[in-house]
Every structure is written in structure tokens, then in C-alpha cells.
Amino acid sequence: MQITLTELATKIGAELIASDSAIITGIAPLNKANQQQISFFSSSKYRNELSKTQAAAVILTEKDREFCKMAKLVMDNPYLGYAKAAALFNPIIPKPPGIHPSAYISPDAILDNSVYIGPQVVIEAGAKIGKGVEINSGCVIESEVEIGDNCQLKANVTLCSGTKIGQRTIIHPGAVIGSDGFGNANDNGKWVKVPQLGGVVIGDDVEIGSNTTVDKGALEDTIIANGARLDNLIQIAHNVQIGENTAIAGCVGIAGSTKIGKNCLIGGGVGISGHLEIVDNVCVTGGSIVLRSIKNSGVYSSGTPIETNQHWHRNYLRFKQLNEMAQRLKELGK
Questions:
Q1: β-strands 190-193, 184-187: how paired?
Q2: Is the pLDDT of residue 304 over 90?
Q3: In the chain, which segments carry CATH 2.160.10.10?
Q4: Mean predicted confidence (pLDDT) in 137-161
Q5: Other CB atoms within 10 Å distance of the CB of residue 191
Q6: What is the reported pLDDT for 263?
Q7: What pLDDT is stored for residue 1 in this prediction?
Q8: Could you write out the three-class secondary structure of the chain?
Q9: Catalytic: which of 100, 172, 238, 313?
Q10: For residues 241 and 248, what is the distance between their CA atoms, to the nearest angstrom?
Q11: Which of 76, 172, 179, 181 is most buried, judging by how many CB atoms fall within 10 Å of its CB?
């Protein structure tokens, strides 16, 4: 693909500051871009690379333009500009409609004529597949699953019975949606399985990463609202609700019946206990443990940053002595 800088600026919503309009063929990092590529700058730690870049133009903010000697694509959010430019140079090419001969499609499944079904796909009775859906190799679509228009299921995705997915949702390889939640009752030391009677409802424009698991509800549905983003290797337990446009990074675990609001950011490796409520516009930084509800918007952190092993052991010993120290201070106060 080739595009002029002038056209590119219009498409990504940037102001072009340049003496001419070069032909652009791609996008690359600051330190690797050539004179037919653009790059972007959004962090001051790369200012040295910005001053040396050979890119034809750089997407950046107004306050950073003085540090760039090349043509400039000025906008408030350079990373958003990068995302739009990258999409232009890497357009999604839909697969042509058709069903691979190795796929098994139940005669009781309902498929639009525009779907693509890849090798070794299994679609069971009662499944409903909308227009323009792409289901790649090895996927399993169990009974009574509903998939809205223009969704993409990458390889080896499993959608268990009772799962409902909106439009334009993307699910990456190995994800499992609608498996049984972890419900067990104890009978004198022996576990008795609690049937999981709910389903999973996923909204429009959601993206779910590789090997992420979303469990079905015990009685009511597990819900992932419109525009949510789930990274790889996330565990969403039964009856969890995740609000619109919330983004959750990799290796997060969310226990059952917790509700997370809209526009939240959950960092990697966070553990969230069950039956909690997190309001809208909350950011939880990576590695934190959430043991109680968060009732006010803002940024929250927990955990101990990494340090030398010797220093950590010394602090750990002090931590075990805190209660005794507190008692002594109380006595001294008296």
C-alpha cells in the first residue's frame, strides 16, 4: 500500500507540518524507520531516538514537535494515531464464504450463507451463526450457541452451550467461553458438584485473548459488556460482570460474582476476590490483590515492589513484628 502524507494525516486526524507530501509505504519504530515510513512518539524516554530518526514523518503531540527535525503529524493522542495508521497499512482481509469439507455442521444448526467455516470445526444442533462470521480451524461451537454478525473466532476456540456473542467480537486461539464455573458443595469432606445453569453473554466489539477462560454463571449469566478488552490467560469466574470498555491485562484472576464497572483498567497479574464491586473508572496497577470492594474511582495499588532478597527478608521480619511494636507504642502512649 502507498499513501501520501497529506492523505494519511486526513485519515488519522492529524495536522501535517511538512514542506512537501512524501509517499508513505509503511510504519516502523523510530530507530528503524526509513524515508518511506512513518513512526510515532509518545514517551519521553525515546527522545534520543526521536532526534535521530530517519522516518519520513513522526506522529507526536504539539509539545514534542520541537524535538523532531522530520515532517510532523501532530495530534493529541499519538498512540491512537499509530493504531489508525497501522490499521491502514495492515487491512483485515476477510476469508471467502465457504465450509471446509472436514467440518461437521449439525443439520439443526442455522448458518448464514456468508460464513467461513475452517477445517475440523464442529457446530452442534441449535447453534445460530450470523452474517460474515469467520470460524477458523478446530473450533467447537456447542448446542444453542449464538454468534452475531462479523465475529472472528481464531483457531481452537470453544464456545460451550448457552453462550451468546454480539457483533464484531474477536476471540483468539485457545479461548474457552462458557465452561462450568467452580461450584462445589461439601458433604462431610466430599465434594458435590453444583450444576452451572447460567450462560455467558458477550457484547459487541469485544476482544478476548488467547487461552482466556470465561465461565458460565451458576444461576444467572456471566456478562462481558460492549467494547471490553481481555488479554491472554485471564480467568473470569462464574457470574462475573465486566462493564463497557474495561480493559484487563494478562494473567488476571477474577473470582465469582464480582462486578467491575465501565472504563476500568486492570493491570497484569491482578487477583480479585469474589462477591466484590468495583465502580467505573478504576485503575488497579499490576500485581495488586483486591480483597474488598472499590467504591470510588481512582488508581489503586498493593503488593511489594521487587528488591534484593536480603532486604526483602529484613523487611519481612519487621512485618511479623508490627503487631508487637504497635502494642508497645500503645502502652508507651498510656
A1: antiparallel
A2: no
A3: 157-300
A4: 98
A5: 10
A6: 98
A7: 87
A8: CCEEHHHHHHHHCCEEECCCCCEECEECCCCCCCCCEEEECCCHHHHHHHHHCCCCEEEECHHHHHHCCCEEEECCCHHHHHHHHHHHHCCCCCCCCEECCCCEECCCCEECCCCEECCCCEECCCCEECCCCEECCCCEECCCCEECCCCEECCCCEECCCEEECCCCEECCCCEEEECCCCEEEECCEEEECCCCCCEEECCCCEECCCCEEECCCCCCEEECCCCEECCCCEECCCCEECCCCEECCCCEECCCCEECCCCEECCCCEECCCCEECCCEEECCCCEECCCECCCEEECCCCCCCCHHHHHHHHHHHHCHHHHHHHHHHHHC
A9: 238
A10: 13
A11: 181
- What does the block give as the cell for 268? 497484569
pLDDT for 87: 95
Can you tell me the distance from the alpha carbon of 213 to that of 231, in angstroms, rounded to the nearest whole number? 11
Angle at 138 between CA 119 and CA 254, to 5 degrees: 155
Q: Which three cell numbers stand for residue 287?
A: 500485581
Query: In the block, which residue shows the cell 478476548?
Result: 208
CA distances from 31 to 28, 39, 46, 244 (A): 8, 9, 9, 36
Q: pLDDT over 70 for what percent of the chain?
A: 100
pLDDT at 92: 86
Residue 238 annotated among the catalytic residues of the structure: yes
Cα torsion 197, 245, 27, 33: sign: negative
Q: Which residues pair with 27 in a beta bridge?
A: 38
For 3-89, CATH number?
A: 3.40.1390.10
